User: Fold DNA starvation/stationary phase protection protein Dps from Brachybacterium alimentarium.
Amino acid sequence: MADLAYTIPGLGTDDSLRLVESLQDRLHAMNDLHLTLKHAHWNVTGPRFIAVHEMLDPEVAEVRGFADDLAERIAQLGASPVGTPGRLVAERSWSDYTTGKADTQEHLKALDEVYTGIISSNRKAITLAGELDPMTEDILVEQTRGLEKFQWFIRAHLEGSEA
Amino acid sequence: MADLAYTIPGLGTDDSLRLVESLQDRLHAMNDLHLTLKHAHWNVTGPRFIAVHEMLDPEVAEVRGFADDLAERIAQLGASPVGTPGRLVAERSWSDYTTGKADTQEHLKALDEVYTGIISSNRKAITLAGELDPMTEDILVEQTRGLEKFQWFIRAHLEGSEA
Amino acid sequence: MADLAYTIPGLGTDDSLRLVESLQDRLHAMNDLHLTLKHAHWNVTGPRFIAVHEMLDPEVAEVRGFADDLAERIAQLGASPVGTPGRLVAERSWSDYTTGKADTQEHLKALDEVYTGIISSNRKAITLAGELDPMTEDILVEQTRGLEKFQWFIRAHLEGSEA
Amino acid sequence: MADLAYTIPGLGTDDSLRLVESLQDRLHAMNDLHLTLKHAHWNVTGPRFIAVHEMLDPEVAEVRGFADDLAERIAQLGASPVGTPGRLVAERSWSDYTTGKADTQEHLKALDEVYTGIISSNRKAITLAGELDPMTEDILVEQTRGLEKFQWFIRAHLEGSEA
Amino acid sequence: MADLAYTIPGLGTDDSLRLVESLQDRLHAMNDLHLTLKHAHWNVTGPRFIAVHEMLDPEVAEVRGFADDLAERIAQLGASPVGTPGRLVAERSWSDYTTGKADTQEHLKALDEVYTGIISSNRKAITLAGELDPMTEDILVEQTRGLEKFQWFIRAHLEGSEA
Amino acid sequence: MADLAYTIPGLGTDDSLRLVESLQDRLHAMNDLHLTLKHAHWNVTGPRFIAVHEMLDPEVAEVRGFADDLAERIAQLGASPVGTPGRLVAERSWSDYTTGKADTQEHLKALDEVYTGIISSNRKAITLAGELDPMTEDILVEQTRGLEKFQWFIRAHLEGSEA
Amino acid sequence: MADLAYTIPGLGTDDSLRLVESLQDRLHAMNDLHLTLKHAHWNVTGPRFIAVHEMLDPEVAEVRGFADDLAERIAQLGASPVGTPGRLVAERSWSDYTTGKADTQEHLKALDEVYTGIISSNRKAITLAGELDPMTEDILVEQTRGLEKFQWFIRAHLEGSEA
Amino acid sequence: MADLAYTIPGLGTDDSLRLVESLQDRLHAMNDLHLTLKHAHWNVTGPRFIAVHEMLDPEVAEVRGFADDLAERIAQLGASPVGTPGRLVAERSWSDYTTGKADTQEHLKALDEVYTGIISSNRKAITLAGELDPMTEDILVEQTRGLEKFQWFIRAHLEGSEA
Amino acid sequence: MADLAYTIPGLGTDDSLRLVESLQDRLHAMNDLHLTLKHAHWNVTGPRFIAVHEMLDPEVAEVRGFADDLAERIAQLGASPVGTPGRLVAERSWSDYTTGKADTQEHLKALDEVYTGIISSNRKAITLAGELDPMTEDILVEQTRGLEKFQWFIRAHLEGSEA
Amino acid sequence: MADLAYTIPGLGTDDSLRLVESLQDRLHAMNDLHLTLKHAHWNVTGPRFIAVHEMLDPEVAEVRGFADDLAERIAQLGASPVGTPGRLVAERSWSDYTTGKADTQEHLKALDEVYTGIISSNRKAITLAGELDPMTEDILVEQTRGLEKFQWFIRAHLEGSEA
Amino acid sequence: MADLAYTIPGLGTDDSLRLVESLQDRLHAMNDLHLTLKHAHWNVTGPRFIAVHEMLDPEVAEVRGFADDLAERIAQLGASPVGTPGRLVAERSWSDYTTGKADTQEHLKALDEVYTGIISSNRKAITLAGELDPMTEDILVEQTRGLEKFQWFIRAHLEGSEA
Amino acid sequence: MADLAYTIPGLGTDDSLRLVESLQDRLHAMNDLHLTLKHAHWNVTGPRFIAVHEMLDPEVAEVRGFADDLAERIAQLGASPVGTPGRLVAERSWSDYTTGKADTQEHLKALDEVYTGIISSNRKAITLAGELDPMTEDILVEQTRGLEKFQWFIRAHLEGSEA
Assistant:
């Protein structure tokens, strides 16, 4: 991530490097998230299986699109986006999702925590981007809107969740 | 992967466990592959950028579908498919793709090697499945046909490749 | 609107409650607006009937989508969005639209005033959201862009409007 | 609703006025219903959230179409259909829906009662229209078929509903 | 129209012949109407040209569909539907539409009269069919609903039509 | 078919039970018919094979839709619709279709008789429903219109059918 | 057809009037033809019913499009296109189609003669337009191509037509 | 099923007859299954109604397609496929599905048993076809893959199914 | 425009150069026209705003397609098509469109004059192409047909245009 | 066909060359077949023209797809697929189709023989591929399934074919 | 090609025979061309593989459509179009395409020559048709436009083609 | 640009005028850009022709949409957007694009410079809008995101661009 081949007209190199660092972290988060959501999609069980199984797939597709936009923003800033699993695992600051085959509600509880972590980090990235580059900020705001909506889907299942 | 909740009618538990082990290895391979193809999609450069950039995306989509079918076959066999990046990196027998930003031809050469490894392993998995379960065999044959076609796309770029 | 079951990670409860109050007011405005636009759609008459009758329907659909996004934002903030007509009428700060069957130009004049009120209020809500939450701000900016475009459609009919 | 500009060829003015009165009441009912269904769509919670949340949206769309057909039938009869929320609340003979954020089953129980009221009134309107105008009767029969099908969806959730 | 090759199970021959006679008259009316609407589509002029020109085409398509359903109902009743222009002109009880190139409002006034005639006749045909055959009645009710809606489109242009 | 869990608002239990009995008989008829049409689709031969083979498939799809609407109407009336083949064969009042591989015209002659029986029974069911419930009547009229149209397709092949 | 409000830039008034006269004759021919094709569509019988019944409908749609293009070309030339059935019958130089319910082959023979007449006349109109206006010529060539293709469909049925 | 009019080039008559017998049994199974799945689709109740009701319909469509492919394979082998309900009931070796209106979980348990039976029989048919004809084997493998996937959907609902 | 890299087989270089010159002039005209139509699309006002605003957009799209076909024909003839605004303004023989914000009728009058100029020039280009190359002629005839149709749309608004 | 640039991982060169030889023969057969089917599509006549004319086109499209898959499999095996007509005619082991303009039944009889030859050869190719490469075998099985289905379409026309 | 069963109304037999001879030659050319383009599609290699591989497929589809239109024009003229490969090779006046596996540029150079030959011949056919039949001329002009556009695609790759 | 007929509610006239001036400059830039991109689309040559030729078209479409949104924002602010080529050339601060027919890489280098200029100016416009109006800012941010992505497409071709 040292040198930049070029950067976006009107942005300085140092600012670009700070943005790249922040975006690469978000790219790892999104790659981790869509793998995790698919893992949950395959491992949920119980009488509400089909509803939750099907709810997860459009979110997987959306998060894959988020990863794509983040990676291409890194490339626009002149750097090389990293998307391989080895680098992801080596560079991430969080642990692997550990729930295997389990009831839908158990997975939703675990995913709720995943989303809390990701959204908190996204909001910090927005603050940084807001100081440096309105286009990057706009990308992050758009993605965070999507993530916050999906966390509500998850949380709505958990409210009054005795059944 | 120890116990199975159930397995497919007409299949024994031991055979099912052998199939699950083989399929889980292929699932890791497919998850690794679609991440790697996206990584290449973002990092290719040079005068043939757009053609190769666009050629990779439908293959990403196809390989993601392969991962889905493998994981759901594992679940049908009564086991829990594993799709998280930590487990993938811990359990795989190959290394991370290491090419960063580079000319399209350089990436295609590196991907050609990736495909050679994956196809060889898939053919071994087909032999095993052919002994135990025609439905699993059919899934693997279908996926291998797709992978062999895409490797030809890659190789066709490399023939007489002086330009 | 007293207690919140939860709120979005990174947002405080007080800020969330201030956002909910503002968003609920906008939700009432949007529900009122799509009902009013449909009412006008049914009651316009005169030689330009079909053009204006058909112009209103896509705007109804867009405003219904705005209401949906506002309500789901309130839910994401942990509160309960209110969408029933009794509560709308009891809590709104403006009066019912009063034009019945009338010429297209008369309805467009009345609707121009409706939009002036709504846009002014939306801009105040944007200022508040801009201080508290960039995602809510982005939703309101997006909706206000749409409303300002449609008001221009209305006003363009009224310029030099002697015919 | 006093004078009619014209009415449908072959229908008398008095019969038209009786039809208009009945249809306006049904129009208020349909406007109330689609607002109420959206309100429930936003406020349902619990482990069956996503299934019920998604089941309500096509019904909202269908009921909005019913309101459109009723209002345009009133206009065909030469009268002015009323679709504003103030008039709806002032003229309706039923109360606002009062359930806020609540479990899916609780909302479905409340909506079952709403449908019982609406369907009973629709059947009375069909009897009246059957005496005066086969086209109006056909519109109401078509809409009642749709409402009765959706009430069955609701009721099927409530049978043996201990979970 | 003398003999019937067969008729619909459960219908008598005499009733079938009465229905055929009534439906053939309506078939001539629909063939005349879609030709007339196309004629108006080509001949409207004036500052509201495009709006009215485009409004007429979907109605042409709908009326052509009405003719198709009427003709095929005649065939189901065992008779031969007649759709040629010579027979239409020889057997109709109304005159040719006489407006040539003219302002949109002038055409709409002339078409309003055309619709008044057609709708009155359709309602008489419904009364007859209501006594003999509920399926034929249903076809005619469905078509009359469509015609009455389009007449309202026309009339809405003519209300307060000083411009 | 003894007790009803509930019935449609505005309908009495006895009337509902009479409707259920009649609709269950029609449901058996429609399930029998779509199986029979598929059977014919597979067994027609001769120089007009492809035209008749293809004509039958959309009718199969339509009749399957009729069965669905009838069964869901029974459920709306609070009863349990029966769709299994054993119950169908035990409860029907007609015999199995007996034509195997045969020329298209031979199948069309046999199907013409099948349709004559079904349409006659449908018309009786319409009479009953006309006394009890306009929504059920409307469903049956709609389906009978479709069946009578398809019988005409069949009969049109048989007129002057020497070739 | 006396005066022209305007004509196409670059065309003289006399030439325009000659074109209008020729095009109006073709417009009558196309209106007659699509009515006649529909008449045949409803009246064909015999063991090849469905194949011929379905073959005619796309041709009806194409010929209706031809009428539209001819009429709008007349309007472009500043004249008023005439599309009413009374004027068509009064001004045409050919007789009504006289075949009623009849075997497909009998209708195809009769339609073959209709097409021979229309194509011969179209070719004369092309010669005239070729002298005066390449755009009108192009419209007529395009339509004649379509008519000649469909006549081949008809004729192919009649070759070696002993069955 | 005695004589074959012809058989597929390269296949002997005796082998063809053995395949026909096996395929006819599978055809009865698929016709029984899609009727049974529809029956369940109409009779499920309880708080998870909508999710299971909607899950069954695509499976009905898929199984209907399986029946079609089996029947047409029988015809390709020169025999006459049998699809009527009387023959199905007379020739099947299993009993009618007996669950009426019942909770979703109860139906899923009953359907799980149905699938276990069908899949076991399909696997035996695959063994036979594998010895005689690779194309028939491929059809059966493809269908069994689909059935095994759907049984997993059912079973996933039943795991840890205390709710 | 001096030398040609190649030209179309069968065409001489001199003829090609004459065609290129004529086509480049038409390319400038089409680029000017679609910019002008968009300018009018944005600047029309008055009570018929929406109808005219929407009528212009499909014409913009069509004229952009005309520019594309002309430019690619120039390239096929071995020359370099020029599409930049500086060259367009420097090389055109007509003036900029000067109407700003104005009533729809005022813009339509101004556009009518624009079309008269373009169509006259197109007809001269057709004459030239008719002598040299039937394919180029065909392109120009096709485009002129479209332009003449749209001028009629404009003129139809201006006939009897007192309102 | 001498040397291979490369071959599929896991396959030996000799096996690859044997597969290429067999696949090239099938490629010639498919290219011949789709040309022959189009030839028949153009040359069928008689009263069943349209049904058979239209039946052939989807089969042409399917066979073209078969040729594509075979050729690309040859390329994957490292060889050069040959698709030119001169090589096809020089290397094929069968004669040109000789039926010109003729009745549909006559063409279907001739095509039945063509299919018998092709299917027999395909089955031999499947046996070879089954020993060497499951992916090639799967391609051939898939294509043979399609060809056997279409031969049944042909044969179904010829059974009891006196008309 | 001796006798004609009939010919197009208004065309003489001798003229028809001259057109048939010319069109049959073009039909052979188009059949040869689409086979050759597919051959190139499979055999191109080198670093620009995917772009050229994909560019060829839509052209294959277009040329197949040209062959269809030419063959059906021959049939309309009463003759029998010949589309088999043996007749094509025996009757063509050019040689087989000889490039096997080769770099994209090498294929494009070879195809450029193929197009030069075909376009020159098409232009001669246009001259002949222009004297005899405007509809045939129009078909050939339309196809030649398409071929000339695609030759430009090829040539644009070869300009300045050092890479 | 002197007076404003009205402006957006909540915006002052002076601020509106400053926004209009800035937006009009961007509108000229976007009109210039889409013309220039089309010019390049037609003039690129060399062995990578088709890939770059096709890459430019979606960007043309996107930039045309940007121009539309900017112009309509100017109109919403009460001013008259200017879109004619004469005004564009007279008012722009940059020169015409001067590359004619040239290799793809040469055009991409020239376009890279064009984008650098446009993006720098857009970022200044964003700063201004950020002070005055969040809706205008949002439009500009959205468009700049698109332009920056496309510049990356261009630049990716130029990295390591020796071929």
User: Anything to note?
Assistant: The two ends of chain C are 50 Å apart (CA to CA). Chains C and K do not touch (no CB pair under 8 Å).
